[in-house]
Amino acid sequence: MRDASALYRYQPHKNVPSCLTRYQHGIGRAKTPTPDNCFFVCTPVYLSRFSFNRPPCFRDTASCNFLGRPKQPYYLAVAGRMLNEDAIAKLTPGDRKEYRRFLFPPALADPKHEPYLSIETITTWITDGGYVLYAQHDPVDNVVPYVDVEDVPGDQIVAYRELILPELYRQHPFFSLDHAVDWVLAAPFQLYQQSALPQPRGRSQTALHALSRTTSAAPSRASSRASYISQFYESSAVESPPLTRAPSSIGSSRLSLPPGTDGTHRAGPFLRIQVPIPWSALRESNPERTRGKSKLRDTGFRFTREEWIERIIPVTEAPSTWNIPRDAAVYRLDLTALKKQLQLPSGEIMTIDAFIKQQDQESWGHGSGGHKAGDVWVHGFSDNPEERVWARRVNSHCNGVKICELVSDELFADCQRYASDEEQGMRLWTHELDANEREAASGGKILLRFYAIVHRAKCKKKDCQGKPTLILLRNRPNQHGKVYFVGCSDFNPSEPYMHLYLPIPPNVDESQFKFVLENNGCLPIGLEVPNSDSCVLSTHPRLGLTTCPYGHSRDGTALIAKMVARPCPAEMIILVPCEHKGTPPPAWTEYMAMVLLRNFHNHPEHALTKPTMEDKQKLLSVLDDVGVEGMTVQRLLNDPRTIAAYGGERLAKESPAFASSRVLNDFITAQKKAKYPHGMGWEGVLHHMGRELALSDRYIHAAIAKDGYRIVVTMHHELAPLIHSARYLCIDYTFKRVEGTMNEWEIAIFNDRYNMRAYFNAIFCILYCDRNTEAAFYQLFYELFDVVRHVTGRELAIRPFRPDGNCRVVLMDGEEAQVLGYGNFLVQYNDPVVSGINSRDPIILLSYSYKVCQVHAQRNIDKLPKTIPVDVIRTLKSITGLKSQVEIDKWVAFCESQSYEAVINWFRPKRNGWFLQSVNRFLSNIAEEDWDLTPNNTNIVESAHARRNAETSIHLPLLASILKAEERDDARHEAILQIERQGVIAKRWNGPFEHLPCPNIDTPETP
Hints:
With 1007 residues, the protein is α+β, with helices and mostly antiparallel strands. It contains 35 helices and 26 strands. Strands 5, 6, 7, 8, 9, 18 and 19 form a 7-stranded mixed beta sheet that branches. The chain has a 7-stranded mixed beta sheet with strand order 20-21-24-23-22-25-26, sandwiched between helices. It is globular. The N and C termini lie far apart (93 Å). Residues 240-268 are annotated as: Disordered.
């Protein structure tokens, strides 16, 4: 680091805070900072971001005071500050891509993704802090880091986001806490944890590396990350700060402002990269430690060069809670027998220290992952006390618990936990359950909780700055007698569903709540809420709660209590074997580690809320069996294969962490994202269809987006030829199976050869407001016929347009847009030379092949007002059986003579349209035999909806519904093969005759 003074001339600056000019480390009391003694030593890395006449100091004194007087030199990168443009301009495209690859997921390099981080616009998204992290990572490091993002406190993720992203991108929904598992990568986040979080006393860290592989003016990388500490170290216990309910303490716990600030400025997070300090300067201040070592040298044995221990505790599995020995003991962990548990779903092998933390229910952080090159020689891996192994030292501190700031000191009084104590944790849990009961029995506490919910609520409309307020309901009062709802102050009646909407619960007094909300939390006279100024809530740090969900008040005013961290003095040190100067560690140590625990936990044991690797691997095998497509928590729990995999027991009984629906849902979601990285919607369909597959293996054959609608056409390659033998096509919508705006257009045929139905699906979505348009239906028919020709090699022939065709008619309900869409398709499908039909009128062409479902037609007549006489309704329905022009003319005259407005409106569009010819055999141009050989309803497809929904589930994402349908079609194809090969059929007597209403005729028994 002293080489910096030879490279750059340091020039003092008058704005350097006084605490910086005064601070040196063991070099004297010089008043002028220099590259040799100042803790913001100027290096090529840092000066590349600043003009040479200005030092890289803090922007303001408050930022400096936030960190206090440091014990070691370090560099600082301010959150959100952009990298110097001159340095950015000289970064090669390769450097820019490598930076993006290191810090962000691959999806952000896809131009179709939102957001898209283009290297051409890198000046808008490369930050000072992100580049410092990028500078530290080793591009040839083969160690696979592991970070369970769900186990990281939310404030750490927020601080990390502020460091690597500018304000513009921090506001993007993709980078929200909800999607942290998608954008927080393990490698940079682990470096951030090592560099930016508070370190234990007496701890040295890595130096800041140069930043680039090029020789440009952009910062350059250092060539080595060699270790500079070769011995173990001892840390001192840190006492937890006392908790109090005094108002002054509550205020300080909320703000935690440093001395000298006015409370209006909140310093952003800094990335702290500490400079190597000689070990001798750090290990001379604890004489008791030296005396303790002298005693251990007489009774124990050497553990490291500076550390002696009394005994080794061998263990063969990583426990969910480690007992902390009260003597100088260390655990020797050997996971050789459980090495399969270290394998991640991606196939990579988890580092043993990551596995230990994954298994542990405690939250460990604020430490270091050690150096790849190793840190220390360790004895004790074998029974030979003289044999030593070079190891990487991983140091972590317990994150303790997060508690409501109103929690009494007595709740954790004298808690010093060395061993597992489930009873102590259950007592704390019982306090919370009791609080739930008390709250449910108090109207005042329910009101306070709802007030807390409203206080935390944010408008869901992007960039809306509105605040929660009461808005009158349009149709008031509602069924609960409420006249208001909680909405956004920027609410606009033209955007009723875009802003905040919270209904007032039935058990909340509306008038009292209105008073509280409009008077900044002041409770109305007469409303007293006893015991609301104290709390018992404590949570695991990984939950990330920032405010207490319980309702609180003090001195007649509602209080939004903060969740505050309660630090824990427990410390875990893991020593993992690694290679030494190119020599790998002994093979027998591959799955071994030494674990040293110090001090004690000052909080009860956490519940088993984090699934172990064994839990995850078992559930993953179940999901591989049942499939993640369209999977939900309830479907997984109720699936017979899940029940069988867990021996008939509840899943949560064997894996308690999965008793939480949120944990289970997060696990299912993670597997979906791993298997389908592009999601299960439209983008996922396009990606799935884009795979290189043979035609025989392809199920999705077309995906079209045009003119405001989208269409996907699916067809099973082996079932497709059956459509050429169909006597008719029966077409209908189903709305339940696909979630969102996507509807399923289902085409069914009855296969006379096998006495069974078959299905072909064209699933489509029309965007905006023009759903079910003629244009969309025309395109559906066009794509259907085109795919049939592509898959089967033959055109789908419809009589009489193709006289040799087998399909006589197309049956649909009476939706006009669908019928006219088919008519428009027939205009281009008809070849007058082949069919002899010279008309290009869609209505006329429809009369040759379209039959309306008579069930739908008569159902629409039944919807006419009940005031219309029964004989009129009966006459209207008689159109289906009229057999001569005289009867038709008489019926038309009857309709025209009606004075009922509803009848007039019903008949008017049918007078000269397609309806009459599609419902009456005499008026239709369909051949009489073809009319008689085909049904007059769409029951074959209507009745299939419920069965199909039961088999494949409903409200599925688009891709999931397609894949489920593919599974079902595969099964149907297997059934057909069995019929041909083995002579067994599901329903032998299932032809047209058996479908007639003849209850007195016995069906022959199958021999």
